[in-house]
Amino acid sequence: MVLTSGVHGPTLGPLESLIVNTLLIAVAFYLLCRPTTSPRREILVLSSITLAAVASRVALEPLPNVQPMTMMCLVMGATLGSRRGMAFAVIATILTNIILSNGWWTLFQASGWATIAFVGSRLVLVEEGTLNMKKLLMACIFASIFFDWWVSLSIYESGMTLSAFGYYLVNGIPFDIMHAISSIAAAVLFGPWLNNLIHEEVVLDVVSKPTGETDVVRN
């Protein structure tokens, strides 16, 4: 299955990449097409923010481990619920890696960010439409470290010693710190704006519903 070894782990061939992407797309489809409680306009909001996340990852790719996606996954999970947040994480990862580079690590990135979105949906980061910045900043730090260490597992191959893997993790600590700092910066600069954007769209959709039409609470 694995053809060569890349910087982030095994690089996959065309068939293997197709299988990985198909699996991830199926997961995203499952998350989006389950009976949903989200207002209709959320799909448009989700698509727009996903494209913005992809553009930011591509634009910031030359900077070492600057990942605004981590903060976005937390806020998306907190505002749109676990299913929409996880779908956002998976789709944004697929689209970005098609442009940047695709490999075994795509599974780890998608699952890592999806986990962060799920956690974001459970942390009560948004109360009455207001983003709790203290909680978000703390979550950004822990989520950034978790994501880096989780994705580091993609580099582990048969024959690699635990000491070599440990040395790889230690060498990555400066990049973990950079990820955490960039997540904090993204939270301060764009967190409240992202939350307000989503919240306003959800409120507009609820107001525009005909009398008697309601939605079930998101999960």
Question: What does this molecule look like?
Answer:
This protein is mainly alpha-helical and 219 residues long. It has one domain. The chain is 70% helix and 6% strand. It is built from 8 helices and 4 strands. The strands form 2 sheets. Strands 1-2 form a two-stranded antiparallel sheet. The longest helix is centred in the last third of the chain and has 36 residues. The chain is globular and about 50 Å long. The N terminus and C terminus are likely disordered.
Can I get a quick summary?
With 219 residues, the protein is mainly alpha-helical. The chain contains 8 helices and 4 strands.
The succession of helices and strands, N to C, reads EEHHHHHEEHHH
Largest sheet, in brief, is: 2 strands, antiparallel
Strand % is 5-15%
Mean of pLDDT? 83
**Strand elements, count:** 4
- Overall structural class, as computed from helix and strand content, comes to mainly alpha
Q: Any low-confidence stretches, pLDDT <50, length ≥5?
A: 1-6, 206-217
In the residues, how many domains can be counted? 1
Q: What percent of the residues sit in helical stretches (DSSP H or I)?
A: over 70%
Number of continuous helical runs: 8
Shape: globular
Order of strands across the widest beta sheet? 1-2
Rg: 18 Å
**What is the terminal separation in angstroms?**
36 Å
Quaternary: single chain
